[in-house]
Specification:
single chain, 0% strand
Length: 145
């Protein structure tokens, strides 16, 4: 394996972790932002970042050929244990108010279509990311004979 390939694989893995962390942090910040245009924009930003977060989680597997470094890269999954409860709170609240209740995130108005779909999309995205990260962490190193 050439040095450029090593750097590319390592860089893809680290960028993937960075995007996943930022996605979960944005989810965790939603309750701290008040209602209004800022809150709505943050919900839309998180919704738009779902495909990027899923694609970033797929980048994690590129580092598995770095057998000497992969043991250390797996430790990067530990911050997700802290970020996951922070991210689940806003999703659960959105399921209750917008998806099941049919109300706007911040008030008694009727929810728009994107607001009703926000929580199921987030649940699917978080589930996909957790599955991919679990596969990355628990994948056994293949021994090549």
């Amino acid at each position: 394996m050439r040095f450029s390939e090593i750097l590319l694989r390592l860089g893809c893995n680290l960028v993937g972790w960075l995007i996943i962390y930022s996605y979960f942090i944005w989810l965790g910040v939603i309750p701290q932002v008040g209602c209004g245009t800022e809150g709505t924009e943050l919900y839309r930003l998180v919704l738009a970042s779902c495909p990027v977060a899923i694609a970033a989680s797929m980048l994690l597997g590129l580092a598995h050929r770095l057998t000497a470094v992969i043991v250390y890269l797996k430790w990067l999954a530990l911050p997700l244990i802290v970020l996951l409860p922070l991210a689940i709170g806003p999703i659960a609240k959105a399921v209750e108010t917008a998806t099941l209740g049919g109300l706007d995130f911040c008030g008694p108005l009727a929810a728009a279509d994107w607001q009703r779909a926000w929580a199921p999309v987030q649940v699917a995205t978080v589930t996909i990311i957790i599955i991919v990260v679990a596969r990355f962490v628990f994948k056994r190193r293949q021994v090549v004979a």
